[in-house]
Amino acid sequence: MIKKEQQRTIYCGEVKEDSLNGKRIVINGWVQNYRDHGDLTFLDVRDRTGIVQLVFDPKTDPEAHSIAKKVRSEDVISASGIVHFRTEENINPKIPTGRFEVKCDTIEILSKSKTPPFQIDQEEINEEVRLKYRFLDIRRPFMLKNLYNRHKIVSTVRNFLNQNGFIEVETPILNKSTPEGARDFLVPSRLSHGKFYALPQSPQIFKQLLMIGGVERYYQIAKCFRDEDLRSDRQPEFTQIDIEMSFITQDDIISLMEKMIATVLKENYNIDIKLPIRRMTYKEAIDKYASDRPDLRFGLEIVDVTHIGLKSDFAVFKNVAEKGGMIKCLPVPDGSKLSRKDLDDLIAFVGKYGAKGMAWMRVKDGKLESNIVKYFSEEVQKELIQVTNAKEDYTLLFIGDTNKKIVYDSISNLRLNIADRFNLKDKNKLEFVWIVDFPLFEWNEEENRYDSVHHPFTAPLIEDLDLLDKDPLKVRSQAYDLVLNGIELGGGSIRIHNTELQKKIFSLLNISEEEAMKKFGFLLEALSYGAPPHGGLAFGLDRMVMEFEGLSNIRDVIAFPKTQKGVDLMCDSPSEVTNKQLEELGIKIVEYKANK
Fold it and tell me: Are strands 50-56 and 100-111 parallel, antiparallel or unpaired?
């Protein structure tokens, strides 16, 4: 328990005003550095606001000096003294408090620290060590700043939504398993043996029920859980800014949400963004960038040259085109800078995405050069140059395959790779775009059925309703994603509020009436009691903070994240449980043998 006389009167980082000179203060914090100069002892003391220098003089306060000499890094102390200006030659311009020091006459060691595994002011630290000792890692200014800025963003979002008539409502964590996307995390029930709860992948159904319940404008800073493979911008548990509104249109939601994003950037980063944010159809994004989350900080538009491949004598292209496949070309300005080794590296790179190869041609003296040019007539070459708008020193990179997904994946990532090689991504630029008019369905070859591109509750465009019976793959949805620099910040849709239309969508998805009632019966029942037109979206808070802070690792904006294998190194979880716990749940662990 801290004594009254030990309680801080000011934070370390606040010792920077001229008016403090000559005043007594009490500092609490961690010792970052200690320096014994024989006659004087200096301690740099840190709290979450910054660092201040304390000075102990044996001539004036021998007892305090004696204690100060025993202090080591990361000890927690309380000290009291008088604030003084530093002499001109001793000013430290690297820190905001560098013009001041505190000449202390009392000090108490509140807690001793073991030697830490890394220095708190150290910049390069192995990430596994950081995660194992996360409680120390959080003390670092880098992490404190990220967590503080995350807090400010959440605060701005809450204020904005509160001022616009939203109310915050919490929804259940223990829920029914409705696996429609990623795998659910399952929680066994002790009271109902053999049955399980699922942790929510999102509050989707519950926020629709809130709209049916008349809440009209809801939001939640919601914890969500998905049992999926991880990467640098994905965690098994993550946070969404979850929003739903009634009696609105897609335009209403997009307009309000981009104002919220603009407010967040202005209030927290003093950045102005131009509204309204540009909108791009899914078709345009796929055609030009082979991605539904294009990075628009640079050009490098992709061109479809399937029809030209059909006119060539190049067997690879001709076979792909004749079998209904696709050939895409990426025209690269200054592509002559790509060496033969670079091109070989790019061929290996696209192989990661399933491409069987990558063809290339260079523009030299107005003509095409390559080991495959001989298979293209002069007329076809001219058409190729014209279609791709290729200029002198351009290099044309080609990906073709009968599997269109392979083409899209390969050439979209090839585009990003080229942008990195040519340093085309402006790290100081924020290029937003709304992607709209997504397809409602996609065809699942393996299971020979339609799948929802987003989720089964997404409403189709009204003008496409007649296509549900004629050509479902041509039906567009009232769905929208907000993309920033090639990263999806969030997305949502207008929901189906008509029971009959919802049943029809389930039927097209090959979800029987019995299965629909088993999975979503309570939602279908609720829709039959008068549901308002409604829609919403969810932003990934962790990803948003990561992007706004200019970081590349989502774990740097989460207090206690997990590794890419879903492990918490600090808490050593997941972990085994006792046999008694398993018995209470009616569970027995058996050895799992994967099918070979």
Answer: parallel
- Cα atoms in the 13 Å half-sphere on the side-chain side of 221: 13
Residue 93 pLDDT grade (very low, low, confident, very high; cuts 50, 70, 90): very high
Measured distance CA(24)–CA(105) in Å, rounded? 10
Q: Report the range of poorest mean pLDDT among 154-168, 216-230, 246-260, 401-415.
A: 216-230
Q: Which domains does the chain have, with CATH numbers?
A: 4-111 (2.40.50.140), 144-280+432-558 (3.30.930.10), 298-421 (3.30.1360.30)
Q: Nearest CA to 486 among 296, 273, 283, 330?
A: 296
For the chain, what is the largest distance between any 2 Cα atoms, rounded to a whole number of angstroms?
94
Q: Is 403 helix (H, G, I), strand (E, B) or coil?
A: coil
pLDDT at 518: 83
Residues 37-51 pLDDT 10s: 878 999 999 999 999
In the chain, % of residues over pLDDT 90: 88
What is the rounded distance in angstroms from the CA atom of residue 201 to the CA atom of residue 208? Answer: 15
Instruction: Using the predicted structure, report yes or no on whether residue 295 has a pLDDT greater than 60.
Output: yes
pLDDT in tens, 418-459: 999 999 999 999 999 999 999 999 998 888 899 999 989 999
The Cα 353–Cα 373 span in angstroms is 26
Question: Is the Cα torsion angle 551, 557, 560, 566 positive or negative in sign?
Answer: negative
What angle, 0 to 180 degrees and rounded to 10, lies between the N-to-C axes of helices 282-289 and 404-421? Answer: 70
Residue 440 φ then ψ, to 5°:
-75, -35
Encoded amino acid at 500, one letter: E
Nearest to 120 by CA among 45, 195, 171, 183: 45
Structure tokens at 86: 């530093």
For 513-559, how does the pLDDT look when each residue is reduced to its tens digit (9 = 90+)? 888 888 888 888 999 999 999 999 999 999 999 999 999 999 999 99
Would you report the helix, strand and coil content of the chain in percent, each value rounded to 5?
35, 25, 40
Q: Are 356 and 349 in contact (CB under 8 A)?
A: no
Coil, helix or strand at residue 241: strand
In DSSP terms, 362 is beta-bridged to 369, 395
**What is the model's pLDDT at position 181?**
66
φ, ψ (nearest 5 deg) of residue 350 = -70, -20
- What residues contact 445, with CB distance under 8 A and at least 6 apart? none
Confidence at residue 49, expressed as pLDDT on a 0 to 100 scale: 96
**245 alpha carbon, distance to own chain's centre:** 24
Residue located via tokens 């820190």: 95
Q: How far, in Å, CA of 450 to CA of 501, rounded?
A: 16
Model confidence at 596: pLDDT above 60: no
Question: Could you tell me which of 66, 79, 85, 144 has the C-alpha nearest to residue 107?
Answer: 79
Average pLDDT, the chain: 94
- What number is the average pLDDT over the span 219-238? 87
Output the CA angle 544-550-552, nearest 5 degrees. 80
At 223 the three-state DSSP class reads: strand
> Closest Cα to residue 578, out of 587, 570, 569?
587
3-class SS of residue 89: helix
Enter the tokens of residue 156.
Answer: 């701005």
Alpha carbon distance 174, 187 (integer Å): 8
> Using CA atoms, how far apart are residues 290 and 299, in angstroms rounded to an integer?
13
